[in-house]
């Protein structure tokens, strides 16, 4: 694995029809349901909370695995070959509030309809040997698809119930022709209490036949697209859906957005974007209760502490690889893998509801995660 030290100066087709079929299947599925350190760490307000049982329900016909905590749906792992990447969607807090946007899989009234590649919680990157994995979606015209990458051939390896539930899989990062650039091995570890839900993601990427270069770029690496209430308030014009699915453009004023970012560096709101921190939290009031989503970086990750690609319209992402962009050319990571070489990323995502989480709580959680 190498790190560069010099700046880099450098429509509608059959696939859309297939994609819409997958989206319809996912919508029906949602309607139907209307080693790592987890036991060693707790957020301060949750210190006496009892861990709930995690269980899984697999639906092989739709390539969907539901994750239940305390018998309630927390999220679903979606890995259909018709999707451009595997995702966790929707994500539901312990109090029942959905914290992710529904569009494009299950649009809800009043939601933004931008960036159709922002689906639930996902992991990919904008420039891997020149291929754009991040922005690929059903909305890309067939003539342009060769410029994009897919994460395909997802194979579940382990699904284990318990106080901490484990779902592990492997997949391929491929070009349009099916050539494999990277092999992905991912373990998702789930846990929860009466007021919290936690996901640990450990992903190892291994270069296959070619050297693989991750260009320092803006869009990556671990991303979540949040529900309207968790967006920051805005009066900018945007495109939204109504209760019938019709789209229209109007100002976002009065849409219920009340979110705010806070990072470990003490940055808030839009000032978080393009800054480093070992954790970042997005919090709001939804369904009358406080909710928050925190992403915690790990010291062993390349580029630690990560840069935050945190947008007011609801994209919340950790990107440790885009240093040249976020530092305005003062830094560059230039992550490069030779054939057979691997890199591992570790992130923790904590969703809380019904209580207020402080910076001190997250500082303690980050220390525990780093052990």
Number of helices: 3
Could you give the distance between the termini? 24 Å
Taking pLDDT < 50 over at least 5 consecutive residues as the criterion, the unreliable ranges are 4-18, 20-44
Helix content: under 10%
Major beta-sheet overview? 8 strands, antiparallel
> What is Rg?
19 Å
Q: What does the average pLDDT come to?
A: 89
Strand tally, please? 20
Q: Explain this structure to me?
A:
The chain has 371 residues and is mostly beta strands. The relative contact order is 0.18. The two termini are 24 Å apart. Helix content is 9%, strand content 37%. The chain has helices spanning 14-32, 323-326, 359-370; strands spanning 54-59, 64-69, 72-78, 87-91, 121-125, 150-160, 165-174, 180-192, 196-207, 212-214, 220-225, 237-241, 247-251, 260-263, 279-286, 289-297, 307-310, 315-319, 335-337, 342-353.
Reconstruct the topology from this structure.
Layout: H1 14-32, E1 54-59, E2 64-69, E3 72-78, E4 87-91, E5 121-125, E6 150-160, E7 165-174, E8 180-192, E9 196-207, E10 212-214, E11 220-225, E12 237-241, E13 247-251, E14 260-263, E15 279-286, E16 289-297, E17 307-310, E18 315-319, H2 323-326, E19 335-337, E20 342-353, H3 359-370
Antiparallel strand pairs: 1-2, 2-3, 3-4, 5-11, 6-7, 7-8, 8-9, 9-20, 10-19, 11-18, 12-13, 14-15, 15-16, 16-20, 17-18
């Amino acid at each position: 694995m190498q790190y560069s030290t010099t700046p880099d100066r450098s429509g509608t087709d059959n696939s859309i029809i297939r994609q819409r079929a997958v989206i319809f299947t996912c919508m029906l599925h949602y309607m139907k349901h209307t080693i790592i350190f987890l036991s060693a760490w707790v957020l301060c307000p949750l210190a006496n909370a009892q861990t709930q049982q995690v269980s899984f329900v697999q639906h092989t016909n739709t390539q969907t695995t539901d994750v239940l905590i305390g018998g309630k749906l927390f999220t679903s792992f979606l890995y259909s070959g018709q999707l451009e990447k595997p995702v966790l969607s929707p994500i539901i807090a312990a109090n029942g509030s959905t914290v992710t946007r529904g569009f494009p899989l299950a649009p809800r009234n009043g939601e933004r309809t931008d960036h159709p590649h922002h689906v639930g919680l996902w992991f990919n990157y904008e420039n891997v040997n020149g291929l754009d994995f991040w922005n690929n979606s059903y909305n890309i015209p067939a003539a342009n698809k060769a410029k994009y990458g897919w994460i395909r051939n997802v194979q579940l390896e382990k699904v284990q119930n318990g106080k901490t539930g484990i779902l592990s899989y492997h997949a391929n990062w491929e070009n349009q022709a099916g050539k494999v650039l990277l092999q992905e091995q991912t373990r998702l570890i789930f846990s929860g209490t009466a007021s919290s839900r936690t996901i640990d993601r450990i992903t190892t990427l291994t270069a296959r036949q070619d050297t693989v270069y991750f260009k320092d770029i803006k869009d990556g690496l671990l991303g979540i697209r949040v529900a309207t209430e968790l967006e920051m308030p805005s009066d900018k014009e945007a495109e939204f859906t109504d209760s019938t699915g019709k789209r229209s453009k109007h100002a976002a004023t009065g849409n219920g957005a009340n979110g705010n970012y806070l990072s470990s560096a003490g940055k808030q709101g839009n000032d978080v974007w393009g800054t480093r921190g070992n954790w970042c939290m997005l919090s709001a009031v939804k369904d009358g209760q406080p909710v928050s989503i925190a992403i915690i970086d790990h010291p062993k990750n390349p580029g630690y502490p990560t840069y935050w690609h945190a947008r007011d319209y609801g994209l919340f992402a950790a990107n440790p690889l885009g240093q040249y962009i976020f530092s305005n050319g003062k830094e560059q990571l230039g992550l490069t893998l030779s054939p057979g070489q691997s890199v591992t990323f570790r992130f923790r995502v904590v969703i809380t509801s019904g209580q207020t989480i402080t910076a001190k709580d997250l500082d303690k959680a980050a220390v525990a995660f780093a052990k």
